[in-house]
Design a protein that fits this description.
The complex is a heterodimer of chains A (605) and B (372). Chain A is an alpha+beta fold and 605 residues long. Chain A has 23 helices and 23 strands. Classes of the chains: A alpha+beta (605), B mainly alpha (372).
Chain lengths: 605, 372
């Protein structure tokens, strides 16, 4: 018996809807798949390639830095950074706890580092602690299996072998900044690369840094290298040889000691920087380790401005050192006769103001030679009045003041030589005649850098040959092994007659070697030194301070001294500025003497 | 119970299509995992073969026992399932953040898998018991709706969003097929439109953070390309980069380099489409269409209401899996974590699908039979 078929007509009548639903769904899926694969296929193929192919830079070995005698100053040592690959961390809380115990960084700090990760690519390492010690590396490596996602990255770190010595001249390294990346046209840098940030490390960065290599790798989704397609090996950077002599640098730094200030010593025959010190120094080894934000802010906000290279960025009124300029102008323009005596009674009334001489009793009758030897202010007030401010400025500019010397170091300042037109445009005021007297003795608006003063005295010593000062003596090409020496660069001659220089040199010799000379204390047995002292008033800017404050160190005058030696055949010129050091003769001149003696003794032997 | 004559009526060709898809699945699992070392000795593709063999045993069992017997015990099956769902919430084993597994000695299984079939069987029974001319009224739908919602809530609690949505889908589809009066349909739609915002709000609150993220990422994968949108983007890159002819077997870079997540389970279609291209995808999707439409035919030709509704429910379940799984890999469905039937690696999914296919064959075999 056949089962009587149930009446299914009503249900069956609804099946076409089900079929329609299935077929429509099928086409939706098919069309969408087709859209992804056929229309957008090319786009997704590109994405798939960029997913798997990565070009990883290989940091080149940075060139070494030597001094002029071939002594190694800066080299590269291995350093280890502790990093997390966040995507590979298994148990974050436990890992952080363990790592915190191993390397002495608080859990809170680790969490902050993780939070502030920069978004680069997935599985990029996040630096947790840089420059961990060998013991810490061993601890982490020993527990490697328990700490998935924790890695130790080995990198090269710059080490300066003489501590903070010549820190400003050498500079330091740190990660390339965005603006540096934007400014470098060549493909010799990449984000995250370490580059020079100050000193010769910065100016000679292109020579030192070499050419990065690239590794074309296939990576999986975890960032692990699966296959290497191609390697372009990095090219080692070239070594550079500085003009400084590390022995002389040490003498300069030791002599400056704990004082703030700057010392510059140059070879008068070539413009080579023999020593350049700026105190207080900074720890460039620490900076090159990539300091944390807190330490960095402490450094840039330090009132003693240790990052400032005072030798080329410190602006000081030159004080009586400027009398060299006033004297040169007076001789050249003959505004006063060479043996014309000026009576000095310890001051000069000009207009409504009385301009004092540093020597209360006065110098009596002095002509130019004695006025320089004794540093008579009244003589130079009169000389200044006779020349006018623009007359003095003319010779100041000729002697290289008021504009950067062009040294191969970053951020050199130009200083200021005032003129009537300068005051009118910068201050919107007429020049006051009394201000001419201040300028004549290097006060008032005049601002110079120790570097400029060194080049000034160098020009006087070598009769007006102007060199572009330089801190790098040569480059050793890594390919050929040859050392290329940079020849001295003569940038012109000072338009001052030879006789004028002879008169100036004789007077500067007198400052040290004649009876009554202001720097008689630095007379040397090694060589005859010529020089000029200077004392720059700090207080002049704030005349109404109470007496007890005046005894504080920060209101003491800056002490200056410029010198050259030997007088008969000059080879070295030195400028010294000791901030708040008091008198130039006692605070600055002895430093110059040590450097000159150190240099000339060495050269002779 | 098993009549020799019925063997002649066995749907060998239908089973053939299913096994063809399974074979493609094994090949794709091999491609997706041959570099992965499993904890146990046997690699994934090999284990998948064992699962399919076990699944076939279940398929033949499901085909052998007369489906009328199954329909007869529908309420018992429903009751046992409900009990298991409660037990799993209390004593279940947690895996991948969800409490879904029950351990039975060395084996463990997911009661929610059983629940899908139990609810289909229960609905087929309920709607074939009652006959109404002009469709069911709202009054008659309250009881089945309530009996569906209880397990749905229990499954959501685990939480297993995909399965819960699927059960609701099956309920709606079977109700529509069984017949609903026009007036009731309008009321039903109206009530839904009114209450959906509230239900959705409650529903949203019940979801775990990762589930919310998956749904958010579905609407905008670029929100967080490294996080929640990552799966969708990488899956689309894999499929899209396959192009017309594909990158070739074992040549899928997205697959090989592990950019595709869950590649041997939920995202197996991405692996396949990357290596076989549009040509392969067209063939594979068509195989599924054939399988589903074949199922619809079986439902259409069923001897009685219970058979037709049971078959239709199974077809809806398979269709839902198919649409949602493929849809999520190509970025038109949210990532809810359900497998592609017959292709995805996993014993539970294979056995459930095989039982379902066995029931379909069962219905087909018995459509011309003498009544006892």
């Amino acid at each position: 018996m056949l089962d009587k078929q149930e009446d299914l007509k009503d249900i069956q009548g609804r099946f076409p809807f089900l079929i329609a639903f299935v077929v429509i769904a099928f086409f939706v899926l098919l069309i969408r798949t087709g859209y992804l694969q056929l229309i957008k296929g090319g786009h997704f193929q590109e994405l798939s390639e960029s997913n798997r192919l990565r070009s990883l830079p290989i940091e080149p070995y940075r060139g070494l830095i030597f001094d002029r005698n071939g002594e190694l100053l800066a080299h590269n040592v291995p350093a280890f950074h502790l990093s997390f690959i966040l995507e590979d961390l298994k148990d974050k809380a436990t890992t952080i706890k363990k790592v915190s115990g191993f390397v002495g960084i608080s859990e809170k700090e680790i969490n902050e580092k993780i939070k502030t990760r920069r978004d680069t690519y997935p599985f990029a390492p996040v630096r947790i602690k840089e420059n961990i010690g060998a013991k810490e590396v061993a601890l982490i490596e020993a527990h490697r299996l328990d700490l998935p996602g924790v890695i130790v990255e080995a990198v090269a770190r710059r080490e300066y072998r003489h501590g903070n010595m010549a820190a400003h001249l050498l500079g330091y390294l740190s990660e390339i900044t965005q603006s540096q990346l934007d400014n470098v046209v060549s493909d010799t840098v990449y984000p995250g690369m370490t580059v020079g940030q100050n000193g010769v490390e910065k100016t000679y960065d292109e020579i030192l840094r070499g050419i990065p290599g690239y590794k074309e790798v296939e990576v999986d989704a975890y960032g692990h290298e699966v296959q290497i397609f191609n390697i372009n090996r990095p090219v080692r950077g070239n070594d550079i040889y500085l003009t400084i002599d590390m022995n002389l640098q040490k003498i300069a730094e030791d002599a400056l000691g704990n004082e703030s200030g700057a010392v510059v010593a140059v070879d008068t025959t070539s413009g080579d920087i023999l020593a350049m010190a700026s105190h207080p120094p900074y720890d460039h080894n620490l900076l090159s380790k990539r300091v944390n934000v807190k330490d960095w802010e402490a450094l840039i906000n330090d009132p003693a401005t240790p990052l400032n290279n005072r030798a080329i960025q410190g602006l000081y009124p030159p004080g009586s050192v400027y009398k060299i300029v006033t004297a040169a102008a007076t001789i050249e323009r003959e505004t006063l006769k060479l043996n014309e005596n000026i009576q000095c009674k310890g001051g000069l009334q000009f207009g409504r103001r009385y301009f004092r001489d540093w020597k209360a009793g006065g110098h009596g009758n002095v002509a130019l030679h004695r006025a320089i030897v004794e540093s008579c202010d009244v003589y130079f007030y009169k000389a200044g009045i006779a020349l006018g401010v623009d007359g003095m400025a003319d010779y100041a500019l000729k002697l290289g003041l008021g504009s950067p010397t062009g040294i191969d170091l970053p951020s050199e300042k130009g200083g200021l030589i005032p003129t009537r037109s300068w005051k009118l445009s910068a201050r919107k005021q007429e020049w006051l005649e009394g201000e001419t007297l201040s300028v004549a003795i290097g006060q008032g608006y005049v601002l110079t850098t120790p570097m400029q003063l060194a080049m000034l005295i160098s020009a006087v010593a070598n009769s007006g040959v102007k060199h572009r000062p330089k801190s790098v003596f040569g480059i050793k090409d890594q390919k050929t092994g040859e050392l290329y020496r940079f020849p001295p660069v003569e940038t012109g001659r000072v338009e001052i007659r030879e006789e004028t220089f002879q008169i100036l040199r004789a007077a500067l010799r007198g400052v040290v070697n004649e009876q009554g000379g202001t720097a008689g204390g630095v007379r040397s047995k090694v060589a005859e030194i010529g020089g000029k002292t200077g004392t720059a008033q700090v207080i002049a800017l704030k005349p109404n301070l109470p007496k007890e404050l005046l005894n504080q160190k920060r209101f003491k005058d800056h002490a200056l001294f410029v010198a050259f030696a030997p007088v008969s055949d000059p080879r070295i010129a030195v400028s010294v500025v000791v901030e708040h050091g008091g008198k130039g003769s006692s605070a600055a001149a002895p430093i110059a003497k040590k450097i000159i003696e150190g240099y000339l003794k060495n050269v002779k032997s | 119970m098993l009549n020799l004559k019925q063997i002649y009526n066995f749907e060998w060709k239908f089973l053939g299509v299913a096994l063809l898809i399974s074979a493609v699945g094994i090949l794709t699992i091999y491609s997706a995992t041959h570099s992965i070392t499993t904890h146990s000795a046997a690699p994934y593709y090999e284990k998948q073969i064992y699962w399919i063999i076990i699944g076939l045993i279940f398929l033949f069992l499901a085909a052998a026992i007369d489906y009328h017997t199954v329909i007869k015990y529908a309420y018992v099956i429903y009751g046992i399932t409900l009990l298991l769902l409660i037990i799993v919430l209390i004593k279940g084993r947690t895996g991948l953040g969800a409490q879904r597994w029950l351990s039975l000695g060395p084996l463990s299984f997911q009661p929610s898998e059983l629940a899908k079939l139990a609810i289909i069987i229960f609905l087929a029974r309920y709607f074939s018991d009652k006959k109404s001319s002009g469709g069911f009224k709202i009054k008659e739908l309250i009881l089945p709706a309530a009996l569906v919602f209880i397990p749905v809530l229990l499954i959501l609690k685990q939480p297993d969003l995909g399965t819960a949505l699927m059960v609701l889908f099956i309920f709606v589809m079977i109700t529509l097929l069984a017949g609903i009066s026009i007036r009731s349909l309008l009321v039903f739609i109206f009530v839904n439109v009114i209450t959906i915002p509230f239900i959705a709000h409650y529903f949203w609150g019940m979801l775990k953070g990762y589930q919310k993220n998956r749904i958010l990422a579905f609407f905008n994968p670029e929100i967080d390309p490294q996080g929640i949108g990552y799966h969708i983007i990488q899956s689309k890159i894999a499929i899209g980069s396959g192009g017309f002819f594909g990158k070739g077997l074992f040549q899928g870079t997205q697959n090989k380099l592990k950019f595709i997540p869950e590649k041997h389970t939920d995202f197996i279609f991405s692996v396949f489409a990357e290596e076989w291209g549009f040509i392969g995808a067209l063939v594979l999707l068509t195989l599924y269409l054939i399988l589903i439409l074949w199922g619809v035919t079986i439902a259409y030709k069923a001897k009685d209401r219970s058979g037709a509704l049971l078959a239709a429910g199974i077809v809806c379940m398979t269709t839902f899996y198919f649409i949602v799984n493929v849809g999520m890999t190509i970025g038109i469905m949210p990532v809810v974590g359900i497998p592609l039937p017959l292709m995805s690696y996993g014993g539970t999914s294979i056995i459930t699908t095989m039982i379902a296919l066995g029931l379909l064959i069962n219905i087909k075999m018995r459509r011309l039979l003498l009544f006892y």
